Amino acid sequence: MTDQQLQASGLSWRRRGRAIGFVANTTAAWLVALVFSFPLIWTFFTALKPGNEVFGAKISFIGSEVLWSNFADAWTEVDFGRLLLNSLVVAAISTALTLVIATLTAFAFARLRFPGRSAIFLLFVITLTLPSEVAVVPLFLGFDQARLADTWFALIIPGLFGAFGAFLLRQFMLQIPGELEEAARLDGASTWRLLISVIVPLVRPALSVLAIFAFLGSWNSFLWPLIILNSSDKWTIPIGIAGFTTQTGTQWELLMAACMMTIAPVVVVVAIAQRQLVAAIGAGAFGGR
Known about the structure:
Elements lengths: L2 H44 L22 H9 L2 H32 L5 H10 L9 H10 L6 H5 L6 H11 L4 H9 L4 H12 L1 H17 L2 H6 L8 H4 L4 E2 L2 E2 L1 H21 L1 H10 L6
Helix pairs in contact: 1-13, 2-13, 3-7, 3-10, 7-10, 10-14
């Protein structure tokens, strides 16, 4: 066998190896996606079942009849429209304020020089190890004494000052070359101008990631709204859909329908920010130096 034939044979085997690897990776990815999406698929089909078939002697994937009316019943049963509006308003305000506060905090720790910066940042990051439940009682007592209980102000404020957002943005800001800051300073840019015109545009992918996390955190929050809110007209979705569970039992088909409607806005938000999310991961928004 000549050298050319040996080289051709080697290339052929490498191509086959790459093809087999591609098929194996694709198959594994589809299997993982199926495993993770199975609960969502089961929830959707459960939402279409008659109530007496959700937990029956024979559990089936699809019920004896498809009841799209379960979604309409779930909407009217707990006034889902009001819950949806409340959750959207609270999540939007929380996300916007979180981005502003986290950006200012991260900029201070990443670009400004002041005594004790590293020690303060270390204490700031240590708060990530504390469970949020630790602060529930002190926060409630403080807002109650200030006569702010049962208000959206008390609902939104505690979630704005977490260390995660500032930590995420700081790690991204540390990757920005110092030469850009020096050039802006030479052009006469103030600190605010530097932040708004130079830093923020460069960390936009990381801001998109933080916006998704902040939106999801507010959207899924249950414990703090349950404690701080008393008026049903201020309830958000996680509290409202708990109304499907009563002393006589749980209306599982309506609960699953409400869950599917709850997921829809989240899917829209992630779809809108998908490009920025991928860009943030590729640019190293979860890393730093």
